Every structure is written in C-alpha cells, then in structure tokens.
Amino acid sequence: MQKFKELMNYKKPIIEFEDKKYIFSIKSILLLAIGGPILAYLVYLFFDLEINYWLHEIVVKQTVYFLNLFFNMGSQAVYAPGPKYHWSFQIPGKPSIYFETFCTGVQAIVIFVGVIIFTPHSQDADTREDIIWRKTKALIVSSLIFYVVNIIRMLIQIQLYNIGYAWVDIHFSISAASSFIAAIIVLLMHKWIPEFIISIIYVGTLAGEPVKKKRKKAIKEIVAKDKKVELNLIRKVLRMDKKSYSEKMIPWAEEHGYSVKGKYLVIPDAEVSRFIELLMLDKPFVETKV
C-alpha cells in the first residue's frame, strides 16, 4: 500500500509521440484494466439475452445467403426455439449446425468496445482534443471488420463441413486462426487511438520510476564522493541500448565536459555540481551546457 501511494505521488512522466504529449492519470489506467473487461462482459451478457436473438437471425440468414450464392449449397436458416438454441443451419444430407451468441462474433467486438471506451485520455489538452471522434471511428471500423470476418469464417467452416470434413475438426481450428484479425484491429487502434499502446508503455514507465529514482540517488552519492561513476549506470539512466551506448557515450561525455577512462565516466571537479543538476532532471542530461 505504501509503494502504491508513493507511485501515485510521482511526478507524471510525459511520453512524446508524433509531436504530441501523452500524460495519463493512474486512475484512468486502472479504469482501462478493470473497467474494460467488466464492460465487455456485461455487453456480451446483454447480447446473450433472448430478446437480442434478432442478431442470431441476421447473422444466420446472411450466412445462408452467401453459402447459396457462392457454393449453391441449398442451405436453409431454420428457426426452432429451444432452451439454448433458436436458430440453426440446415445443410442437405447433414446434421443441423446450431447457432448461439458466441457464433455471432460479438464476443470479439465487445472486447475492443471495452478497450476503446476505457482507453485513457491524455491530460494534454491538444492531444485529447479529438479523442472522442477518433474513438468513434475505431469502434465503427473494428466492429465492421470483426463482423465481416466472422461471416467469412462461417462460410469457410460450413463449406468444409459440406464437402466432408468433420465439424469438430474445423470448428475450433478455423475460429482460432481467424483471431489474427485482432492484430489488424490493434494496428488500426494505434493509428487512431495510440493512447492504448502508449498507456501500456506508460505503465512500464511508472513501474520503473522507483528504480530510476534509486539509481539516480546512487549515482549522485558516488559522483559526489569519487568524481567518477560506472558507464553502465549512466547508460541505464539515459535508457540507451548497448549499440547506442557504444557509439554515442564518448561523444556525449565530451559534449558535457566529461571523460571516459576504461569503464568509468570521470567528472572534473568543476563539473560535479552541474553533473548532479543534469542527472536529477526528469529527462537526465537533456539540457546542454551554456
């Protein structure tokens, strides 16, 4: 609990992406993590109510239309209300295929509905200016894509069933394979609402804040005492990968008036105070010497 309170009190980091600033509250990120799944589940339960079986009828009849159009199958949409199933596909010479809410593909749609609605808004006014319109586009397009893909999935499954494949062999395998479309939706979301991916990165940034704070404190104490510090510690503070580190560390050190000796960064006495000042910035060493 104490660590959580400390995290809540951290100065909020800023992530810059495509000339926009993304700043999120902890509450908005928690709402995404908790509210998104709850909303998705509740919306699915709503569509699973018998009063919403009109969706079953639409999907079954559209699928039958395309089955007969493309494969001349002679399939029929059969309405026979029962305790669990109301609609089914009738394929000549084959046992009926019963239809339920899960077959509509609505479960995939509601997941993204929950994610999109609860994706946090940046606290930067310019960045969040058109967020409602961008979310609306993402909701409409993602829902349409999932709906169309679900119809195509059923066309493939039922045609394979019609030509002799066992339903148990094709039902789950093709359903699982069609889930690749979720990756496309995530890419579309990143185009219209990058806040979703950036909020995940933001969580990582927040989680790393205590480590970053301790690392800065350790470097500050070492430099104040020894006037030098291991390069690897500086690399971690600057969040440089090893390739950038090997290519840029020496030029960076020279730019700030430091020197590299072996595995240490050596700071002249006259530069110690300035080094500590730059180290403690939100973005360490972004400012250059005047």
Quick structural summary:
The chain has 290 residues and is mainly alpha-helical. The chain has helices at 2-8, 26-47, 54-71, 106-118, 131-162, 167-177, 181-192, 195-226, 231-238, 242-255, 272-279, and strands at 15-17, 20-22, 76-79, 87-90, 97-99, 228-230, 259-261, 264-266.
Structure description:
- The protein has 290 residues and is mainly alpha-helical.
- It has two domains: 199 residues, no CATH class; 53 residues, no CATH class.
- The protein is 61% helix and 9% strand.
- The chain contains eleven helices and eight strands.
- The strands form three sheets. The chain has a three-stranded antiparallel beta sheet with strand order 3-4-5, with helices on one face. The protein has a three-stranded antiparallel beta sheet with strand order 6-8-7. Strands 1-2 form a two-stranded antiparallel ribbon.
- The longest helix is centred in the middle third of the chain and has 32 residues.
- 22% of the residues are buried.
- The mean pLDDT is 87.
